[in-house]
Fold this protein.
Amino acid sequence: MCCIRYTSLVPIADYQSAAETISGFLKLLTTSGGMRLSYRITAGPDAADPDGFEAREIYVEIDGPDAPMLVERNGELLRAMEHLAAKLIHLESEEHDKLSFDAGNFKGLRARDLRLKAQTAATQVQGTGQPYAFAPMTSGERRLLHLAFRDLPDVQTGSVGEGSQRMLVVYPLHFDRATYTPPTPLPSSRAYSTGGNRVRPGGSGRRR
């Protein structure tokens, strides 16, 4: 079962066409793939994230008996589906945040978890005077952390790394970033771990 809802056109050129392409992709998964899923696609201004976590313009809410398997292994399959759908509607890598797939409020729960981890990381950085590097994560999750840290005193944030290995680093407020050596990224299969690394100035990351 599916539902598509779209409103007037803004940055993505043709929301109706994009929504229909995504719907066709999901129908293929539920017919040829045998997955028991239902979904609703919202495109345009109504798809905006009210919490500002994502810069989404197309929002795909997935339900059904097989939906829980999408969020296993920290949402690995859900993210893969989202990535494939972004390719199908010709979004460039820097535009992937315009499309968001969710199931069982996985992303909402993830956002809550990241806010708590932001508070823990800020306390650690304030106490040790040393940077703290989160594991690589999506640009949407990094955006959420940047927003969370704006309300926390005596710390600053920045991103290091490229592509899927890009990570957010928390620094003491007046820390000299030129003395900082980024940690070695985690393997891609663990790229969305909620853990992080505490890093000494000029040194390598130490897994905590």
Observations:
- The beta strands are 2-6, 38-43, 58-63, 99-103, 132-134, 155-160, 167-172, 196-199, 205-207.
- Residues 109-207 form a domain with the Ribosomal Protein S8; Chain: A, domain 1 fold (CATH 3.30.1370.50).
- The first helix runs from residue 15 to 31.
- The mean pLDDT is 83.
